[in-house]
Amino acid sequence: MAEVADGRAEEVERRTNVTRLGEGVDASGRLGDDAIERVVGVLADYREAIDRHGAERIVAVATSAVRDAENGPEFSELLEERYGIQARTIPGEEEARLTFLGSTAGRPEDDETLVIDIGGGSTEYVIGRPGADPDFHVSTRMGSVRHTERHLHDDPPTGEQLDELRASAREIVEADVPAELREQVAQGIAVAGTATSLAAIDQELDPYDPERVHGYVLNAEACERVLEMLAALPVAERREVTGLHPDRALTIVAGVAILIESMAAFGLERMEVSEADILHGAALDAAG
Fold first, then answer.
1. Which domains does the chain possess?
2. Do 170 and 264 form a contact (C-beta atoms < 8 A)?
């Protein structure tokens, strides 16, 4: 929940639940029953909070998992019938625009900026200057859930599997973002769960502290160190890592590898982590 005024979205209450809605979509083309039930369970709590705060407007967006699933429209209908929530399935380009708007709102116009949003089924790369519409955006079919299912078949994954995942990620970035644009980027902002988890792990935060995560700078060396540590642990032990939400343990290795290869492809040695993301962008956009 947020109050929107003067071009800024001030959080009233923020909740993050990892539901892995995209689990299995890459292979089956459908949202799975278990994944749908996980989302439904979370939204029951969200609906209660919405009513308690007396929210004047509800904005809900569905991204890659619902876009790619043949039963995506049925899922959206279920949410409206059960909770009165009209979830709008947005294309990758709109997802990128809203993410850029949310993560750069209030920043001074500066150098050409990259915003990376690593999701479960897709990763968005958005390039532009704060305060303006982005100059370039692309939504790739690469994400922490999708690439875990494609490449990491052992627990913990083998070195060969991780190398294949990293090579795939690098190939996708270089194919989907022209080299001349990558060379123009002067700074980077990373949003969403992979980046915020990395910031929390690197600082060994317990409990999670969004004020210490927002604005935290990750350097390439720290990312590599954390990836090596996480990839060596089976999922059960990853759940115990300080700073990592247990529900992200299954997919965090793929997410960190994607971030590292993205930084390398853009020639960035550091990335700033932002708690402001597509949620803030959607709120600002809805308020006009």
1. 2-90 (3.30.420.40), 92-279 (3.30.420.150)
2. yes
